[in-house]
From TrEMBL:
Keywords: mRNA processing, mRNA splicing, Nucleus, Spliceosome. PANTHER family: BCAS2 PROTEIN, PRE-MRNA-SPLICING FACTOR SPF27. InterPro entries: SPF27. Its main location: nucleus. This is Pre-mRNA-splicing factor SPF27. It comes from the Eukaryota. The keyword Cell inner membrane does not apply. Belongs to the SPF27 family. GO terms for biological process: mRNA processing; RNA splicing. It is found in: Nucleus. It holds the Pfam family BCAS2. GO terms for cellular component: catalytic step 2 spliceosome; precatalytic spliceosome; Prp19 complex.
Amino acid sequence: MAEEVMVDALPYIDLGYDEAGVRDQALAMVEEEARRYRPTKNYLEHLPFVQSKTFETPIMKAEFERLAHLHLLRERVDLVVATRINNLELMLDYGPATWRLYLDTLQRLLTDGQRKLQSLRKQIQEVNWHRKSIQSRAGEELKSLEGSWVGLISKNFEIELAIAQMEAELAEFRKAEAADQEQPPLDR
């Protein structure tokens, strides 16, 4: 520490930090400090152990207990992480086979569903064909019956015309007979 520089700065109050070169000088000082200071994992090991209990207050005791409790929580979190890792390892070991089994089950369900759908469509087709054949036969029978009905109506009309004509002839015949009866018989 041959060249120690004492920095006395109040950056929010002091002026002049915006001048040219001041920022570069500050960055150079930070880099120099970083080169000289090589932190280790336990950089306080060269210092003697401090008995902190002499300075503890009730508030500090409560805080230390809280921190110890956080350590227990951290152990629980570590347990959860270990469980997750165990679950991931189990999934890596058994997951693919389980998924294959699941996919096979889904495939079987799909195949069964498609087969049932085909069967239902076939049954629907058979019902529709049966209905069509019944209705076609009934339609033919209805046409036949309608034709005979028209024929019978025509015959009834012809019979009624014939009856009307005969009644007219009978009426004429009766008139003629009545006229004949009114005339005196001719002597012979």
